[in-house]
Amino acid sequence: MKHFLFIFLILLCSSCKDNKDAQKEDTAMTVQQYTIEQFMDNEAVGGGSFSYDNSKLLISSNRSGIYNVYTVPTTGGNYTPVTASDSTSYFAESFFPHDDRMLLSADGNGDEIDHIFLRDSTGTIKDLTPEKEAKAQFYGWAKDGKSFYFGSNKMNPKFFDVYEMDVSNFNSKMIYQNNDGLNFSAISKDKNHIALVQSLNTNDSDLYVYNVKTRQKTKINTNQSSNSAQDFSNDNSALYYTTDDGAEFSYLMKYDLNTKETTTVLQKPWDIMGAGFTEQGSYMVVYVNEDGKNAIEVIDTKTNKPIALPDFGDQSITSVGFSNDEKWMRLYVGGSNTPSNLFTYNFETKQKYQITNVLNDEIHPEDLVTAKVVRYKSFDGVEIPAIYYLPHQASENNKVPAMVWVHGGPGGQTRQNFSSMIQYMVNQGYAVLAVNNRGSSGYGKTFYQMDDLNHGEKDLQDCVEGKNWLATQPEIDGSKIVIIGGSYGGYMTMAALTYAPEEFDVGVNLFGVTNWIRTLKSIPPYWESMRKSLYLELGDPYTADSVRLKRISPLFHTDKVTKPLIVLQGSKDPRVLQVESDEIVAGVRKNGVPVEYVLFEDEGHGFIKKENQIEAYSRVVQFLDTYLKADKQPVDGELKSTEIKAED
């Protein structure tokens, strides 16, 4: 847990009693305020596949304004562009194991119909999965590097079959036909076994091992629980998986493919989110969700003990990856107050190299805020964890407005990661309480299932209690608190304005669900394997559950909204359709309530292009400033309703 940083200015004075108020005022730090353009000029970098000779890394970066793919020397240096798109975002998947060819991925401006692309030795980019309307997912390389695995729903839009593509001729063959709605998790190095998962409900899933030769499936778990395959051992004798069978948090297990016996490998007081072996099997990497922050262990498989990782002071290692020969490791290092930078580490020389410096040079690190984990009691005594950002300029004598931030999901989690958007809001003088209301992941399966079939009710009360907690903080102006969120968080925004209309002063709805009946009926076909689980958690729109779903859908109760609202939406969103936002805006406008609508024609579920992020987040702050900061209150009748349409 990170502790919040206060900077006090010590005044030397002869009469402290007479200057008590002045000293209180000085507990607030003066910070430089930055524009949204400056914050969005922070670079976002992802990936980090090593080339076959370890000379360079394949990465994704949005430095051009959208994501493109680049290579960068392993010891640091200039980026070399692989793609130069100005419209479609491309992402790095992997270098080929034995040459400099590359695999990339891209969708159609947010439609989530991903394809896999080859970038060959001549620089030509070719779509390897060109089937129209079919989605492809890269699963990984075969042990010999002569083929790779991928999933595609080209045969049936509802389910992903597993294919192997030969890279000598780029012909593919199906190795598992998915007729049962199972999801691929892992494949053994000898290609004989595939791990598959079947979703049962919000938390629980069954784990199977499929024998490629006999085409038989064997169920691994004996009790209903949450089970997820992690990796097969390098000698093909065992499957490692996580389960919460008999426990609140997921722990790591080993299943022997020959004896069928299971053994507990590792257990922590938090969820083990992932585990996997390096190419040669010398190390196992374990990820733990420790109070909303990644905790990583790299375990030597010979000694079964964690190895020492490079020291980065108060910053955290959030992700690691290895070269195929295990001589190099790449690491992402950052925190809530700094975006993650890419580093490399050479195991032979013990040297580390900083590859990126993604924080905009114009932003001083001391002006950014470190998040603090807090907990508060909800209406029924349930303890709610939250991530809290308090502006440096806030003090008891300089109270600031605040926002309750609700993550996506349901079942998501706000984590202690860097967010340019949140840091911009905080820099502009807004405190942010990112609530992990009941139903959030990471805090045990009991907490995770607490919001099943009561969305917009108890989870909404958790958000209201978050607002109440904020109002008790001496640095917060309790009369100026906004609720904001995206997707499920956008739904919570509309639920708050509809069902608790006097609790929050302004609402910010980022592509939020407003009609659960329509949303649950119109989920993308490739979500079919999760449909049953969604219906068990939220309600089945084709049954009597529809009565409750209509009751908790803000669209049908817009007459209750009385507070200013801003709505932002991508027109290509396949999850929350544009009509959701169109209709909620139209409904609220009938009340004469101030509404602003910002629509992006070239975005999907979330905004990925820098120019759109700048437009979106600046509009949000302008709207909040208008209605929450006294010196910017509109005159009567001004800014009642506006609409912004962002074109391609």
From TrEMBL:
Pfam families: Peptidase_S9, Peptidase_S9_N. One of its GO terms (biological process) is proteolysis. GO terms for molecular function: aminopeptidase activity; serine-type endopeptidase activity. Residues 97-353 form the Peptidase S9A N-terminal domain. The keyword Ribosomal protein does not apply. InterPro entries: 6-blade_b-propeller_TolB-like (IPR011042), AB_hydrolase_fold (IPR029058), Pept_S9A_N (IPR023302), Peptidase_S9_cat (IPR001375), Peptidase_S9A (IPR002470). Residues 417-629 form the Peptidase S9 prolyl oligopeptidase catalytic domain. It comes from the Bacteria. Keywords: Aminopeptidase, Hydrolase, Protease, Serine protease. PANTHER family: DIPEPTIDYL PEPTIDASE FAMILY MEMBER 6, SERINE PEPTIDASE S9 FAMILY MEMBER. This is Dipeptidyl aminopeptidase/acylaminoacyl peptidase. It comes from Gelidibacter sediminis.
